[in-house]
Amino acid sequence: MDKRASITQRYEKWFQRSYTQPYVLRLFIAGMTLRSTEAVARVKSLCAEHLQGRFELEIIDIYQQPGLAKEYQVLAVPMLVKISPAPARCLVGDLSDVDKVLRSLDIHIRR
Questions:
Q1: Nearest-angstrom CA–CA distance, 60 and 30
Q2: What's the burial of 21, exposed, middle or buried (CB within 10 Å: 0-12/13-18/19+)?
Q3: Which one, of 36, 34, 81, 76, lies nearest residue 55 by Cα?
Q4: What's the chain's Rg over C-alpha atoms?
Q5: pLDDT score, position 18
Q6: Which of 93, 111, 94, 105 is nearest to 49 (CA)?
Q7: Sign of torsion, CA 25 78 31 67?
Q8: pLDDT greater at residue 17 or residue 59
Q9: Which of 40, 67, 89, 95 measures 20 to 30 Å from 51, CA to CA?
Q10: What pLDDT, on the 0 to 100 scale, is given for residue 107?
């Protein structure tokens, strides 16, 4: 029973940290196209609504910073990358389905 309690305590600590640790996100876009501006607006809205004050968002234009695009192996845009908390995750394409984005990036929110 002690082993089970230990596992439960570790999970509870991890779960509590997932609500307090800031999320570090990078959004890769290509120029100021309509698709890019929509992606920026969606991600900013998602962060403001679901990650209130516990996120860092960096928007990277692959035309202006091609080195970062190569480093992150960006093959398509928009691409949203969750750097931390671990594990890192990425989502490419349409970011309009908020629940799908949250699930795909393993972002825990309080409901």
A1: 8
A2: middle
A3: 81
A4: 16
A5: 56
A6: 111
A7: positive
A8: 59
A9: 67
A10: 81
- For every residue of 44-95, DSSP letters joined together read HHHHHHHSTT-EEEEEEETTT-HHHHHHTT--SSSEEEEEESSSPEEEES--
Write the pLDDT tens digit of every residue in 75-100. Answer: 999 999 999 998 999 999 989 999 99
The DSSP output letter for 22 is P
Token reading at 11? 């999970």
CA distances from 89 to 9, 34, 41, 49, 104 (A): 26, 25, 20, 20, 7
Task: Evaluate whether 95 touches 43 at the Cβ level (below 8 Å).
Answer: yes
Reported as a single tens digit per residue, the pLDDT across 20-50 is 789 999 999 999 999 999 999 999 999 999 9
Q: Given its phi and psi angles, is residue 78 left (phi above 0), alpha (psi -120 to 50 degrees) or beta?
A: beta
Q: Which residues pair with 84 in a beta bridge?
A: 24
**Which residue has 């570790």 as its token pair?**
10
Evaluate whether 73 touches 41 at the Cβ level (below 8 Å).
Answer: no
pTM of the full structure: 0.80
